[in-house]
Amino acid sequence: MKMKHKSAICVVLLLILAFTSLQATQYANISSQYTFSIDTQYSSIQLMASDKSGMSSGYLLENDNGVYKIDLGKWAKGASKVYTAAFAIVNTEKNVYLRITEIEVTGGGEHLTIALHKHRDLHASGILNVESENEGDYMIYYSGGTSIPHSDDGFVLYKGNGYQSDYLRYTRDSVTWRSATYDSELNVWVVNENLVDADTLTNDADTLSNFVWVEVCLSNLDKSGDYSGSIIIHAKSLSAAEISLLSPSWTKIGEGGDFGYSIASGDVNGDGLKDVVVGAWGCEGRGKVFLFLGESEERSLYRLSETPAWEVSGGEDWERFGWSVACADLNNDGYDDIIVGSSYYREGGEPPHWYLGRVQVYYGSSWGPSWGWERDGDGSIAWGVDNFGYSLATGDINGDGIDDLVVGEPYYGETEGVKGKVSLFLGNENGLDWDPIWTAIGGSYDSCFGISVACANVNNDDYDDVIIGAKNWDSNKGKAYMYLGGNYDGIPLPGEASWSVSGESAGDYFGNSVACAGDVNSDGYEDVIIGAYGFSSAKGKVYLYAGNSGGLSGTAVWTASGDSLNDWFGYSVSSAGDVNGDGLKDVLIGAYGYSSFQGQVKLYLGNEGSYLQPTAWSKSGEETDDYYGLAITPLGDIDGDNYDDIMIGAPNYDWGKGKVYKYAGNGYGLAEDADWTASWSSIGEENGMKSEFGYSVLLADVNGDGFDDAIIGAPKYDLERGKVYVVLGMPDIKLAGKPSWVAIGEVEGSQFGYSIAIANVNNDEFDDIIIGAPNYRDGDWATQKIGKAYLYLGSGTGLSTEPAWTKVGDTSDPNDHYFGYSVACAGDVNNDGYDDVIVGEPGYSDAEYTQRGRASLFLGSSSGLYTDASWQALGEDTDHRFGVYVASAGDVNCDNRDDVMISAMCGIGAPYQTGKVYVYHGSSSSPYLSTVADWSKSGDTENMQFGLAMSCAGDVNNDGYDDIIIGAPAYDDVYDEDVGKVYLYFGSASGVSGDPAWTETGLGSYLLGYPVVGAGDLNSDGYDDVIIGAPGYMALTGKVIIYYGSTTGLTVAPIRMIGEMIWSVFGVSISVGDVDNDGNIEVLVGAPGYPSNTGKVYLYTIP
């Protein structure tokens, strides 16, 4: 039976202490046995054994027909024994945190001490004089016949991952889940040796471990006998007040300019995940807006990108671009659009049109946002100060199913003076209407009508309604207006307000903030919340008005006031969504003046009887003058856990840098620490503009010091002469700050470094490097691009200064041959102990076919590479371009000889650029590779470019045969072009399987599958993993995705790496290694398009 949220949990464990008197000198030996059972009503709690025991079974925990048993052995009188990891308690209930509150013992407990603790192999302090844990890493729950309650401070178990009979999963970081091993003989779950410590366990909702070890101690046994009894472990789920929004699960600090002044959320790229838009109106003097993408194909692993995937700046100085932001689908295409207000925009920056204001719309798409609509303020007759775009709101006002836009213009004036204005622009299939269908002008001068706007469906009809604030009305008393949506002779809003209410006193500034509160009391009508930050000497006050069939209640049904003078409580108000999952909407109220403008936000939970409950949670800024809470916004349930999430802005954090905080409802969502960390990055040289630094990257140990080094190609350096850099791996700092070795192409245009590969061709202790220059010409004035490949041998001092081997392409005909377009280590194809090298020449032509392509194999030896190729294969037809990509296939048939893969751009008899891949098996006899391909496969649609990237995947399914992975980055689906597709084929005794064992298709124009890289076993589960690039992701921002191996194929891992900006083509090159020799894998990623094709390379450590 599934456990109900908020229910107390009592796990009953039956304890039987059987003390049997034995005849043994003056002592009575004591036999102690623990057995316990768990009521199936609470199957969300499972037990897990440790294999750290001297028992013959290998661990203490056994299961006899559903009754768990622990055999503690036989001990003499006066003996003491500690079982550090008798068993672990694991919380498997999704969405619920459990606090272990108490452990009771009935019968025979006077000799028992029971503690809960984090580290399996350490003892809880104070039990016995042995190596022990630090204070805070353990809690004693029972000692010497007395239960020690921990109702408020007991260990809290992080929410579970569910439980089925075939798996038990547990975690210490809320992201990486380990599977316990099931012992079928004793019917118990046993801890996975890759994760034994719950070192992130805490006694509050910051915990990230969902398991805890139970330590049992028998001490000073003084008599024999039967001490039967029971253990009762009490647990409870934390209440919403205890776990909702306790700490931010994601934060981001801006670079300046009031980052976080405005915040909105929506699904801009249509991937089903919420994205976040943040405005920084002072950034760079013009203002800037940033888009952070939701990341994860599994919503339970949702996270926000660490760097903005898209950003855009204002066009004029001091226009305050990003003063307001909103998200909505204005053209009904399935992508949310970004609306940006520049409330201080000036037309040319000169009078008489100061501060007209401007609103722009960037339409969403799978590629990302693109500009599509723009409108300026009208230009006030008297004042030239409109501030069009000061406030924004969206809703479906005319009931057509498409979002519309409401724009506030609070300083719009007429001849007599400033009144304020609000305009409604309808959305439609073609985008936003240019002209407003409805406008309303304030009824009194200097009222700031439109200072705030909101949309809500207060009467539960088919139309959203519009709420407008006028904070300066009647000596700053303030007033709010509501216009009911509907059909008024073809106009969706009436000419006069349907409802209005004013503040209590002059200086209240009632209406400075207005918001839809949602339905806080579950009566079917949305309610409205209004702030009056100036109330009572700026303590501030907030009013809730209830929706009903006729509109809004005439008087507030609920109010709350600030605590101190100048709190400015209510300066910002917002719905929080439903953060505690009870079906009622909750409310957020900001007081950014709190404590010398440190700022504070309070949460009020919905309540059926009294609309809103007392304060359930509050959070303050970090420092004075942070302005924390100036912006607050609901995000919805972005991580799929049935609890809504929120975001709070502190735009003046750190002297105006600004900071935003994401809080997950019910206390969980994203881990506070990123799944990966960027420990090193390098940008191409200034004099190498457009060098595409990072187009090719590798990690290899060229100097034999045990630290992998970074090899980076910049093929367009110095008029495309090309350059390759080596940056040494080092302890602690990962990679050195400067390259230790560089090599530059011989002639302009050769693109030296376009391709690079690692091999140990002479079987010494050092990796060697092969570099391709496919556009190499025989002299600066030659025109034929014959191509050239270079071998540099590794040594104790690094790479040789001169190449030990070079080879140029064929010159027998005048066509461009592009020898070295692709280079790869072939592995050891003839099993002689030396790595061999394969080089692609896709432009090769002969008398039979033009541009048919060729691939050549060069054998390794003690002195390096042989001069001549031992094996060559040709493309099948004209323009086949065989050799466009070459790679090792590993040993797909497990015959101890490595095999190779070669791809061709055009498959025979297939549409243009379909692509075809060939696999040739290694052989111990000349020419050392099969003369005819042992396996081949063509793409099935035109232009999909099957085989443009490929790699040995390692042994993904752990069957003893290497597998191969192939990318088709230009594959189109029914929705988008160039989404990309990846295919995994298993190896076998006969070679590569005929059909793919697994495929993955990109979303939007990802270019998924360029490249694909075998990564080894990243998560130590016995299955090799792969890394796949998607450089087209989000307008060529690019991202990199890790997939874990398994018996059936690949599964996406909760680890993403995303580029910094659009057009950076992040992820087009990837390599793995260990640069600091610490046992943790690093990933090197190239972004040759960052910025303006200068290029940048990033190093990430995989946790």
Tell me what the structure shows.
There is one protein chain. By secondary structure, this protein is mainly beta. Among the domains are: 50 residues, Complement Module, domain 1, CATH 2.10.70; 170 residues, Methylamine Dehydrogenase, Chain H (7 Propeller); 185 residues, Integrin alpha, N-terminal (Methylamine Dehydrogenase, Chain H). It is 3% helix and 42% strand. It contains seven helices and 86 strands. Strands 10-9-8-17-6-3-16-15 form an eight-stranded mixed β-sheet, with no helix packed on it. Strands 1-18-7-11 form a four-stranded antiparallel β-sheet, with no helix packed on it. Strands 19-54-53-52 form a four-stranded antiparallel β-sheet, with no helix packed on it. The two termini are 36 Å apart. 61% of the residues are buried.
Structure keywords:
single chain, 1103 residues, mainly beta, Complement Module, domain 1, Methylamine Dehydrogenase, Chain H, 8-stranded mixed sheet, 4-stranded antiparallel sheet, 7 helices, 86 strands, 3% helix, disordered N terminus
